[in-house]
Design goal:
26% helix; flavoprotein; NAD(FAD)-utilizing dehydrogenase; 2 domains; FAD/NAD-bd_sf; BaiN-like
């Protein structure tokens, strides 16, 4: 019979925002964190352009893609003021769209998380690539029975429990986590905070989805989010504008369900900068639109604060009167087969083309992919989780942060959600 040297109270997979914040808020527990990368918090260091926008004054479920009831339940546990208080030794500036950026940069945010996690007694093991996780039985002396219970929910353990009466033999169900190098870790509670698939260079991994599925929990297919759009042939002219950036408004149809569970398509609008690239179109407004885009058409208003009547009254050339970069206007006209002249000189069919500036409808070819996406949408289905992010019917198994099928918009929403999940779970585990 194999022997276990140590059984942790809590084992966390992933030393990112959710995992570190959880460890920092646990009290009186033996805690270990397993991190795939050689160092912790790589994605934290990259967030907010290296300035780490940790939260937002306007935290609300409407800023997230996911089950609204689940999101509201998580967010109610942590206010933006709570996050700022946690990082109280650092200074933050509230900037555009009510985001809070760290004055001294993301490195200091990560340093506080690591310090607080270690103060709580957490051990962090870096360079540990998790391969699998399962539930096993161990006796009171740490001996492992040479039998593995079913991976799924408690109701599926009937046959196993007929062979082993846990109470009679003083047996305990624990988690065994196996690393790719063969190392094994054991814990009473397993928390998966492994993140999504975005930015492979930062250590992205699908292990969280694999663990969920191995325990019978469904996973919504992951997809890139907060990412730029590639374009089809009709919009190839976008590529000629690489580097051009200006404010615009984007509308995208979003799926929702009404009281009788019928799927509806309701438009959402996103105002902000758009940026043309050699691959297509990006920028904050585009990234937010990508979160809710599910293939099909989007609409861009290139001149949201301009009235065409101003151009109608002007004798100046269109490229001069429009509040747009001249390079953009000229390329738009060229793509439409038009010359640059005063608006009043265009024919009726030509003005129809020009008015597309206020409602330019097109279908993106796709996105820039996971390598350029800031986050991943999709993930572990929240309808399989309890209010504390525990898996229904699997005692001691939890999923928190980006690994879940909940994704926030730009602006500190995703970091805040990771912290809120962790804070919620910390209350649960501290009460055990």
């Amino acid at each position: 019979m194999a022997k276990i040297c140590k059984i942790y109270d809590v084992l966390i997979i992933g030393a990112g925002a959710a995992g570190l914040f959880l460890a920092a808020n646990l009290r009186g527990k033996s805690v270990a964190i397993l991190e795939k990368n050689a160092t912790s918090g790589k994605k934290i260091l990259a967030s907010g352009g290296g300035r780490c926008n940790v939260t937002n004054r306007r935290i609300d479920a409407s800023n997230y893609l996911g089950d609204a009831g689940f999101v509201k339940n998580i967010l109610k546990n942590l206010d933006f003021k709570d996050v700022l208080k946690f990082f109280g030794e650092l200074k933050f500036n509230e900037q555009k769209q009510s985001q809070f950026f760290c004055e001294s940069g993301a490195k200091d945010v990560l340093s506080v998380l690591l310090k607080r996690a270690r103060q709580s007694g957490a051990q962090i093991f870096c360079g540990v690539c998790v391969k699998s996780a399962r539930k096993i039985l161990a006796d009171e002396n740490g001996g492992i029975l040479d039998v593995s219970p079913a991976q799924n929910r408690d109701e599926n353990l009937t046959d196993f429990e007929m062979k082993f009466d846990q109470n009679e033999q003083n047996l305990n169900e624990i988690f065994e986590v196996v690393a790719e190098n063969g190392d094994k870790f054991y814990a009473k509670n397993l928390v998966v905070a492994s993140g999504g698939l975005s930015y492979k260079s930062l250590g992205a991994s699908d292990i969280g989805y694999k663990i969920a599925q191995s325990f019978g929990t469904s996973v919504t297919t992951p997809a890139p989010a907060l990412v730029g759009f590639t374009v089809q042939k009709d919009e190839f002219w976008f590529k000629n504008l690489s580097g051009v950036c200006f404010p615009a408004e984007i509308s995208v149809a979003c799926s929702s369900k009404n009281a009788v569970n019928r799927e509806l398509k309701t438009p959402r609008k996103f105002a902000g900068d758009i940026l043309f690239t050699h691959k297509g179109i990006s920028g904050p407004a585009v990234l937010n639109a990508s979160l809710f885009w599910q293939k099909g058409l989007i609409t861009i208003n290139f001149c949201p604060n301009f009235s065409i009547e101003t151009a109608q009254k002007s004798k100046k050339q269109l490229s001069t009167v429009l509040p747009l970069p001249r390079r953009f206007t000229l390329e738009f006209l060229r793509a439409a087969g038009l010359s640059d002249k005063p608006y009043g000189e265009y024919k009726a069919d030509e003005t129809t083309k020009i008015l597309r500036l206020f409602a330019y409808e097109f279908a993106p070819a796709g996105t820039f992919g996971f390598e350029r996406a800031e986050v991943t949408k999709g993930g572990v289905d929240t309808d399989a989780l309890e209010a504390d992010c525990g898996v229904n019917g699997v005692r001691g198994l939890y999923f928190i942060g980006e690994v879940l099928n909940v994704t926030g918009m730009l602006g500190g929403y995703n970091l805040h959600f990771a912290f809120a999940c962790a804070a919620n779970l910390a209350k649960r585990l501290n009460a055990k």
